[in-house]
Design goal:
The complex is a heterodimer. Chain A is mostly helical. Chain A has helices at 11-19, 23-42, 48-64, 75-100, 105-111, 120-133, 138-149, 154-161, 165-187. The longest helix of chain A is centred in the middle third of the chain and has 26 residues, at 75-100. Chain B has helices at 5-14, 24-42, 58-82, 93-111, 124-146, 153-173, 182-203. In chain B, helix 2 (24-42) packs across helix 6 and helix 5 (124-146) packs across helix 6. The chains are: A mainly alpha, B mainly alpha. Chain B: Keywords: Membrane, Transmembrane, Transmembrane helix.
Amino acid sequence: MADDLPLEHAWPCLMAQAQDGDQRAYRLVLRALVPVVRVRVRRRIFDDVLAEDVVQEVLMTIHRLRHTYDPALPLSPWVSAIVSARAVDALRRQGRSRGREVNDEDMLGAAVDVGASSAFETMATEREVAGMLSILPERQRQMVEMVKLREMSLDDAAQESRLSISAVKSLLHRAFLRLREHGDQTHG
Amino acid sequence: MVDHDALIDTLCHEASPVRRVAPAWRRALAWAPVALGAGYLATQFIHRSGTDWAGPMAGIAAANIALSLMLGLAAFIAALSVSVAGGAARLNLFIVAGAASWLSLALYSISISGHPRGELGHGSYCFTFVLAAGIPMILVTILALRRTRSLTPVRSLTLAGAGIAFLSFALLAFCHPIEMSAMDFMGHLGAGVLLGAVTVLLGRKSIAA
């Protein structure tokens, strides 16, 4: 399969054809870019799951910004700038979410209302859901939370996360696959 | 390793023909007159006294206008250039020399003033004028930057804000005495910095790629 991929000197021409609406050329150049993007992302991000998420975001950004590429110039610097920006965004988001996490078990225990025993069942369910969601990368978890837990429409979720509807669908699809795999592993 | 073919298929399916963006300098030349026109119209509601073009110092005013326009346009080109992935803002010798000349002219205008230091509140008219001229330019600039969006919105908007400030200074120079006090000059700069900050705040989300 890799032998079918176009060489780097052909990318600008293929991208120019893609800008003109040639879907075959677009597919070829995107598929050729995936391994290059992956290598560049992994130079910055060591978490495999997060790295693959960033690869996906890079592909979506390339799609949104494809009209800004000048075919007279090489494609690599343009793609590198996108990779760099998306990797930095992902690392920032990861840093922010880690900063929000609470690890003080004593404080959490003290905060529990002892009169709320009737709600234990609900809490157990919530904990189970939270546990399941915690295996997901941040973007996928956000999408599941928005669409399934907060019952937002795909349109609203796409708007809030500034992604296209197809990107939201793709993130959800990958999240469910991952959850199913996790379920199979845990329950045999 | 994750297979991204499903996503690629979706993206290809959505891939309609797109209109390529023109080079930054050409887009800046198209948008700058729109921004200047909007700024000019906005200042029509403010009292204006014309520059004395027959006076001995008219050359200073003309040089000030030319330098402000040039710097404004250069910053605008840089903003549009940086907004494209992989684009760079080239701060060449020409621009550095222009900025140094603009500052020298301002210092000269202060030095020939009867009250070089000025008084508190002295530059309030100029401050209002620069803001009135710059605010519609902000909207025009954000509209221009939305075409490409930006991977580094704060950087693009900071450069755009500098461009807006200089274009506003150019409009101000048409109705400003040649002499000015330091306080007046600080008012000009303060308004310019405020325009830059408002540009970043207003545009950060709407132009982010």
